[in-house]
Amino acid sequence: MILFETDTSVFELLWDLALAFFIVRIAFIYFILTYLSSLFSSFIIVNRVIPYNHLTAPARELIAVPIHILTVALWARTVIVYYEIPRVPGFRIAIGLVAGLFMVIAELLGGFVLWEEEYKEWIWETNLLGAGLGILSLILFEGMPWVLMLLERSEVNETTHGHGEKSITSAVPTIGKTEKVSIEEKKTN
Q1: Which has the closest alpha carbon to 80: 144, 137, 15, 19?
Q2: 0.85 exceeded by the pTM?
Q3: Rounded Cα–Cα distance for residues 21 and 41 (Å)
Q4: Residue 64, CB half-sphere, CA atoms under 13 Å: how many?
Q5: How confident is the model at residue 52 (pLDDT cuts 50, 70, 90)?
Q6: In sequence order, which residues have a C-beta less than 8 Å from that of residue 32 and are 6 or more positions away?
Q7: What is the Cα–Cα distance from 145 to 106, expressed in whole angstroms?
Q8: Closest Cα partner for 21 from 158, 134, 143, 29?
Q9: Which of 105, 127, 140, 160 is buried most, with the most CB atoms less than 10 Å from its CB?
Q10: What is the pLDDT of residues 58-107, one digit of tens each?
Q11: Which residue, among 152, 142, 32, 140, has the nearest Cα to 88 in the 3D structure?
Q12: Cα dist from 73 to 34, 105, 111, 127, whole Å
């Protein structure tokens, strides 16, 4: 078997699987929160709770996109804080890309359902502005965890306790057991 002939330990393999599972799970939660918010805002618009049907199509899209981007930023920040996602660019980019993959799959499934329900004209009526804003929205959705990392403050280091800029661990020397014994012997002599 190949598994036993490699020098990769089982723990490293399990760690990689667990990390992949965490990335997929967090990305799915980020996707589902954003997607449900988009469905809710679409429901509000279609049922004319917030009527802006008097606007032309490009103006409607220019109003809806900033609301969508704010929603994406809100959910990205919520997921980052709730799951305490570290400020590691690769980790956050992976979460964004996997969530973007979920979003593309959902959009393709939605388009397929609309196609089967005879809404072909509505799909092909999309103008270039709407398509461009949709692609921009997808790119911002994928990159939002990384963008928020750039906007976050760096974490404050440990308290310095009056030792200048040194942290406590570098200001207070550590003494090994053998060094401690030799120091105690010098004190007794």
Answers
A1: 144
A2: no
A3: 30
A4: 27
A5: low
A6: 102
A7: 20
A8: 29
A9: 140
A10: 666 677 778 889 999 999 999 999 999 988 999 999 999 999 999 999 98
A11: 152
A12: 9, 21, 25, 26
Residues in the chain: 189
**Distance between CA atoms of 148 and 79, rounded to whole angstroms?**
11
Nearest to 75 by CA among 7, 125, 10, 140: 140
Beta carbons of 156 and 86 less than 8 angstroms apart: no
Are the beta carbons of 40 and 46 closer than 8 angstroms? no
Give the Cα separation of 115 and 35 in Å (integer).
20
Record the tokens describing residue 65, joined without a space. Answer: 């996109």
Per-residue CA distances from 164 to 53, 161, 168, 169 (Å): 62, 8, 10, 13
Structure tokens at 111: 């388009």
- In the chain, where are the structural domains located? 2-158
Cβ-defined contacts of 80-86 (< 8 Å, 24+): 80/145, 80/148, 83/26, 85/26, 85/145
Q: What whole-number distance in Å separates Cα of residue 53 and Cα of residue 99?
A: 31
Q: What are the start-end ranges of the H helices in the chain?
A: 2-5, 10-46, 57-82, 89-116, 120-124, 128-151, 168-171, 177-188
Q: State both tokens at 177.
A: 């057991």
CA distance 104 to 106: 5
Task: Please check whether residue 41 is in contact with residue 72, taking contact to mean a CB–CB distance below 8 angstroms.
Answer: no
